[in-house]
């Protein structure tokens, strides 16, 4: 999977490297700012009131 | 034949390798989620807590500074705080002198993200009845992370615009029976009541109120004016002034709730105490 992505990134090595890093940052940002804030309230230890 | 064999092998290798890569990726994502829940939410909550603390500070100091010559207001009834607004502070000295949180009105997830939340319709600090406060045990600042470590007679201080109200954790279940003997171990226990009335059946209306209990999540009556008595057997004037802290239990679960009850032992006007640090000295807590 990662090999396949790497082979399909365009441009010389330096450009590919930057594209790869940008991809990783984008995915982490989507996780941190969209997916996790939605997922986290469903965790059981948020129920603290009676 | 040989080349077909190689093709099949390499297809299998691709499948296995991709599966492995996905699994490793999933593992990293799960780890990232753990870091988010335990630490990133703390940072977000701390920011919200900071800004509501500033708002509260302003609302307390603002009007007073404008009219310094006004005569002392006669015991004005505390207004019902607005949903989501900060209206008091909670301190628990045994969690460290820097333990302080602004209490917000409401116990929804939006309020609890900012700080410990006050159950609407429960008493306000200092009033007779029961001040109900819920707080997170894990993540989002985890104000009530250490409720399981509280001992009887540990102080829970509530600060309002005018006063410090010093509550102390009530006797634990195993201490209730001979509280009058047990309490002598510590001078701070002197005014902590067990609220038991030996001449009444089962010890009176507060027979189920102890320092710490684990209850099922449906026990909304833990924050009733007389805890665990939804029938409310006492008129307001006869109710003891209590504070009740609730959080999740077990630590990472939601099958139960941990409940801590404290009783009001002291009211110190802020004009007299000045700061929380001074108050700690006055009530015999290590500064």
Automatic annotation (TrEMBL), chain A:
Name the UniProt record assigns to this protein: Uncharacterized protein
Superkingdom of source: Bacteria
TM spans (from-to): 12-39
Keywords associated with the record: Membrane, Transmembrane, Transmembrane helix
Automatic annotation (TrEMBL), chain B:
Entry superkingdom: Bacteria
Ubl conjugation is among the record's keywords: no
Alphabetical keyword list: Hydrolase, Membrane, Transmembrane, Transmembrane helix
Annotated TM spans: 12-39
Region called Disordered, residue ranges: 59-84, 192-212
InterPro entries: Sortase (IPR005754), Sortase_Class_E (IPR053465), Sortase_dom-sf (IPR023365), Sortase_E (IPR042003)
Cited Gene3D superfamilies: Sortase (2.40.260.10)
Pfam families: Sortase
NCBIfam families, alphabetized: class_E_sortase
Protein name, entry field: Class E sortase
UniProt source species: Haloechinothrix salitolerans
Phylogenetic lineage: Bacteria, Bacillati, Actinomycetota, Actinomycetes, Pseudonocardiales
